[in-house]
Design goal:
Helix content: 10-25%
Number of helices: 2
Order of helices and strands: HHEEEEEEEEEEEEEEEEEEEEE
Oligomer: single chain
Length: 380
Amino acid sequence: MRRQRGVALVFVLGGVLAVGLLAGTFSGAVLNENRFDRMSRTGLQAFWAAESGVDRALVSLRDSDFLSQVSDSGGPEISYAVLGPGGYEADIQPVPGQAGLYRVVAIGSSSTPGSGAPDFQQRRVDAVVRVMPGVPLPKGLFANTSVYLNGSFRVDSYDSRTGGVVSTNAGAIGTNGTAAKSIDLIGSADIFGNVVAGPGAPDSAISLKGAVRVSGDVGNLDEPVPMEPVAGPAGTEDLVVSGGETVTLSGGVHRFRMLSIGSSSTLEFTGPAIVYVEDFELDGGALVTSGNLPENLAIQVVGDEAIEWESNGTFYGILYAPESQISLSGNSTFYGAVAADRISGGGSGIFWYDEALEFSGGKTGFGQATTEMVFWQEMR
């Protein structure tokens, strides 16, 4: 009987020990799981802090004063900035031999470095950013050398921020040219704004023939309007939209060597976009801008390839070709701004300069610099 009780006691003690071991194992697993959860959480905090450092670098690189201080030796460094329980810091350096490219190294921390916080983690994100300097956007219909228009046309202005098309009488035609007939307007035309030639140009620089009516001043600029070449770069591929098809592109930066939109064909953008292109042709087709807002589409022409613009439709946007000649034909309505080296055209068209473009904050690639991410990687 005693032997049986002793055997039972051994089994009981063994069971208690087994339960204790299981409980200890379970408790350890719970502790490890909790620690893993905390480590995952702090790791994510560090990663998103590093991402914030990259975003801060992008904003800084759009600032001309900051950009002018960035040298081959780096800097100015974005010093540690608090973000929630942690923070970030970033270093910016030019990419050697690659004009306009900058390397960003951002370090994110889950908590303040050196604070002794448990489960402290850091993450690093490397990026390469292309900076495209902003260029001044001339107002209205502007050419560096000359403007020649023959036909029935109207040049006016409005402000898209008001939500309607109401004349604001600022639809200027201008040029930096000073030679005879630098501005040559022939036909039946109404210009609700000024007509101005280059500084010091003689009266012969502006020729108005036929029923050309100007509501503002006819005279000279006080100083030349900057016409900076497009830095680009353009792309290496061609996009041809033809045969009545519709091609849809997202917002963002697009680069083409050649862009051609044929008769009854459409190129549509679903968001704000900047297009860099060397050879551009609109031959009876249509461009559709997101929200019908000129600030949402800028076509910037790299180089001096002549541009043919033939359309009877409506366009909202900016056409900027400071080294090219633009030939306009058809009966289109244009909302936005046009700037080129030379502008010539005929037909019956309406041009509305959008004064809201002066407040677009670099969104179109004018005024403030714009940035484009060309490489991104989380470093482990």
